[in-house]
Specification:
Helix 1 packs antiparallel against helix 2. The protein contains 9 helices and no strands. It is an all-alpha fold and 290 residues long. The chain is globular. The protein has one domain: Rhopdopsin 7-helix transmembrane proteins (Up-down Bundle), CATH 1.20.1070.10. Belongs to the G-protein coupled receptor T2R family. Its main location: membrane. GO terms for molecular function: bitter taste receptor activity; G protein-coupled receptor activity.
Length: 290
């Protein structure tokens, strides 16, 4: 993350951050509210609903922490390690949950019938809650590794070393690896997802059944592709912020602003692509218009 300096630009960034926070809180809270209300009323909650709700909660935390970090650095100009740790934890949790959501979608929609695939389907789909807890624990572990390296660097006065000391390289390496592995799992699951759907769609097109509707499969492929683009942009932007902040002590507040807007954008797309969320949003908008 990065802080910002400079009179009028600080006010502009602060207003932009608060706008992104308000929009993000509204969108994420809507997703959480819809799924929690269904659970409260005794309606069935699917594994996808659980992952989407957990992602919404983690993204709310990310946006709040990022805004607090930005405001504190604007007015106090201090480096609060605990805020950085909590932010890393929230982001990593969101990324791991997003990766697992892709895996769950792959297992639910794909038509592979290999022993490994069927075994994974039986093992993963009924254990959604455990996977969410495992994602949280893994994010805690990764954040602690980053924290230990960062505290060591701050103690020795080497974390902001423009000569790229071995310690700063180690810190950035741990940071990059913590963020890279969720992206790697997402990429692998996405490739398997696309390969499976490609073969399935090819067989369906070659069949004599002309009433087959392929839009569901195309929609799923567009969602996975959009999420991968979002994931990649977020990873690159966040790493650039951290790299220049810790190595050259240069602050890119506009990238922080991008990181604050991206989750809300992806959650908006998630609402649009999820039938239940889309229908609820339509009803809300109709009530507002009336």
């Amino acid at each position: 993350m990065a802080d910002s300096t400079g009179g009028d630009s600080d006010v502009l960034y602060l207003v932009s951050f608060l706008m992104a926070l308000i929009v993000g809180l509204g969108i994420h809270s809507f997703i959480i509210g819809v799924n929690v209300s269904d659970w409260w009323r005794g309606r069935s909650v699917t594994p996808v609903d659980l992952f989407v709700t957990s992602i919404g909660i983690s993204r709310i935390c990310c946006q709040c922490i990022l805004t607090i970090f930005h405001v504190l650095n604007m007015f106090v100009h201090v480096n609060l390690v605990i805020i950085d740790v909590v932010y890393n934890f929230c982001v990593l949790t969101s990324l791991w949950l997003t990766s697992l959501l892709s895996i769950v979608l792959c297992l639910k929609i794909s038509n592979l019938h290999t022993r490994l695939f069927l075994y994974l389907r039986r093992m993963i789909l009924p254990r959604t809650g455990r996977l969410i807890v495992a994602s949280i624990l893994l994010s805690v572990l990764s954040s602690l590794v980053i924290l230990v390296t960062g505290i060591t660097g701050l103690t020795n006065g080497e974390i902001y070393n423009t000569t790229m000391s071995g310690l700063s390289i180690k810190h950035l390496y741990n940071y990059a690896m913590a963020y890279f592995f969720p992206l790697l799992f997402y990429s692998i699951s996405s490739v398997l997802f696309f390969v499976s759907l490609y073969h399935h769609i090819t067989r369906m097109k070659m069949s004599s059944n002309l009433s087959i509707n392929l839009e569901t499969y195309y929609s799923a492929m567009r969602f996975v592709s959009f999420t991968f683009i979002y994931y990649t942009i977020y990873f690159i932007a966040d790493f650039v912020c951290v790299y220049y902040y810790y190595v050259y002590h240069v602050n890119f507040s506009w990238l922080d602003l991008l990181l604050n807007f991206l989750p809300a954008l992806h959650s908006s797309y998630l609402i649009w692509k999820t039938a239940k969320l889309r229908n609820r949003m339509s009803k809300v908008l109709q009530n507002v218009m009336d």
